[in-house]
Amino acid sequence: MREIFIVGAGGFGREAIWTIERINAAAGHPLWRILGYADDNPRWKKGDNFEGYPILGTVEEAAREHPAASVFAAIGNNQKRLDMVKRLRGFDFPAIIDPTAQISPTTDFSCGTYVASEAVVQVGSVLGQFCLVGARTIIGHDATLGDFVNVGPGAAIASGVSVGDRVSFFANSSTMPGISIGSDCWIACGVGVRADLPAGTKVEA
Prior knowledge:
Layout: E1 2-7, H1 11-27, E2 32-38, E3 49-50, E4 53-54, H2 59-65, E5 70-73, H3 78-87, E6 96-97, E7 102-103, E8 108-109, E9 114-115, E10 120-121, E11 126-127, E12 132-133, E13 138-139, E14 144-145, E15 150-151, E16 156-157, E17 162-163, E18 168-169, E19 174-175, E20 180-181, E21 186-187, E22 192-193, E23 202-203
Parallel strand pairs: 1-2, 1-5, 6-9, 7-10, 8-11, 9-12, 10-13, 11-14, 12-15, 13-16, 14-17, 15-18, 17-20, 18-21, 19-22, 21-23
Antiparallel strand pairs: 3-4
């Protein structure tokens, strides 16, 4: 059984722990021992309890006291997640995949990626490092996501779409097939993207 701690004692951190608990239950035996949360927010003190799991202290304290543990960065903001991963360079960041997610065996996904409940990731797709795929999201066949992409709940990335790094798709957004979306784009809730987007584009509802 491997040990893991969660960076971020908030809503996403709670979701990540729930997913890991579901992974353990689906396996029929514990695959992960959840150590607790690490968080730099001064509202938390080492030893506090957050919904049944301890606060291990700051990120540095948790890293120092649990150097062999795996880590999940429960940080929705793409740039902040990237910065945290750099701080914890050398740690193991496993992919966390909800047992109800449907992922093709021909999908290629990387370290630190999170796929939430009932998401569907189709054949030939590629998920970069530290991507977040929300609940009931659909990633179409042969789509490619760069690193540190966040795809919100209910979003639909159509087949053959190419997505750069650090792109944010908010809930229920969607794309047309085969388009290209540059790095650091931001697509608001419910927006349908119909054409290529250059890097840094912000698309409002």
